[in-house]
């Protein structure tokens, strides 16, 4: 309880201090801290500084009526600000000398320390060079345009417009920081800028409201030109001093404070305008401020009591809201972070939500996808409306799964019912998982298992066949030794038997060499022998189709490579070439070495490949063959094996003329040399 009382008192004191600060700022344009830390009287030290420094020079502008200008008849500098500077001089009991200059000259001389004070708007850019006093009056920056100009209603509309303004004036700095592409015409005084507007050489003039208003009347522009009602800004004007004269700044602030207490600016305004204008604002009266502060204090106490009783509930609500927000954000991040494609559909099969993976797949952003029907994405989302697993999930409220093909990829499509207890309708989450690599791995594993089985079968068959072949060869030898040398027919028959036995034995050797289980290591291989052994296995297929073979390879071409991968590459290239020739043709295989690279070219004069199919031929399961005639894995296996060996593969094809595949594989000659040594 004590803590609550202390807390309440602390808040009330803080509010009281804040109210006093507002009152001081309203009445004297200073904060409570400035009021307490600053003595209102000039100290002896400050008085000595003024005497040592001598006359204070005010670099006034000479052509900005009614603020400051040189009277043409008397040659005396006059104006509202001049009267204020005079009052400040009297208050400080120090002479302030007026030095009429152009505005840009006044700013430059102040920055060089050749003058002491100048009234201006404070800004970050100007703070690099000057120190700023407490405010002395308020000023509005305005825009004046022709009555015929309908496109300029605020300073935002000044883009790509011609705007005239006083050199080094704050309004230029303000516009440059807020609006781009304005064409500025900077003049030495506001009058020149107004004349440019009058002559239609610019689209608008910007500057201080009193000066613009004065020249609008003085130059007879009141009927044809108007000041935009909405000002660009309304800021407090301060006295700027060089950064090296901080002591002078403290002295000026004391004088400004005392002048504000006596409302000198109000009296000066009444002299020039007859009424109080926006140059000085007394926001509210003291009595009104007091009433408002008391009323606010009472409201604060009532509000605090209400706040105290509801504090626990609000904290809990806030905590739960934040937890829900964090949970929702985490869910969104997880939803978008999943690599699986996720789509949420309502009962009309309209898309409610999707994740980034789906957006990337269909190449649309989320906004373009949402609220569209699933039929807008055929092939991947809408496959078969009659057997739609989304509709089945809505109907039987169970999960369903099927595989679909899209853009040469295989996806596992699974549906999940999302129950919503707050609504009558449910939704379905569709998850599409890319299982292409899984299916490819299964096909490759199946292929490997088949090759193992073929190897085992070949070894068994070779053993069973070689035994009778050995007997035939032995008995043939016996018959040759015991036969009648003059029997020509028997001699010819024995030669035929021996030739057939040798041919069968060579066929078995080729089959064993190709199908034997490899260690998948790099080893030395004779390319001519390897190609011949593979071609012999395909001789029967080529003979059936009347296909001639051409092999261009040196007899002693040795390479150190992965024999197993090379077998896969050549056998699949040869198989594709044979399949491309329906009847009568030529298949050529060229093999050579250039620049430490093995070059293999397999060409045929078959039916060729369509241009639109070439970019897809290396994708898994892509095939142009009739159903049951091909799996679409041959060229994919070639591509993978070439990549595994660090090589490259390319293809040239002309429809109905033929196709050529080019394989380039890097060689490791040092390994051959080491093994030969």
TrEMBL record:
Enzyme class, UniProt record, top EC level: transferase
Pfam families (UniProt xref): HATPase_c, HisKA, PAS_9, SBP_bac_3
Superkingdom field: Bacteria
Catalytic function, reaction form: ATP + protein L-histidine = ADP + protein N-phospho-L-histidine
Domain Histidine kinase: 460-669
Record-listed E.C. numbers: 2.7.13.3
Cited InterPro entries: HATPase_C_sf (IPR036890), HATPase_dom (IPR003594), His_kinase_dom (IPR005467), HisK_dim/P_dom (IPR003661), HisK_dim/P_sf (IPR036097), PAS (IPR000014), PAS-like_dom_sf (IPR035965), Sig_transdc_His_kin-like_C (IPR004358)
Single GO term (MF): ATP binding
Keyword Membrane listed: yes
SUPFAM superfamilies referenced in this protein's UniProt entry, alphabetically: ATPase domain of HSP90 chaperone/DNA topoisomerase II/histidine kinase, Homodimeric domain of signal transducing histidine kinase, Periplasmic binding protein-like II, PYP-like sensor domain (PAS domain)
Residue spans crossing the bilayer: 5-24, 288-310
Record keywords: ATP-binding, Kinase, Membrane, Nucleotide-binding, Phosphoprotein, Transferase, Transmembrane, Transmembrane helix, Two-component regulatory system
Gene3D superfamilies: 1.10.287.130, Histidine kinase-like ATPase, C-terminal domain, PAS domain, Periplasmic binding protein-like II
Name of the protein in its database record: histidine kinase
Protein species of origin: Maledivibacter halophilus
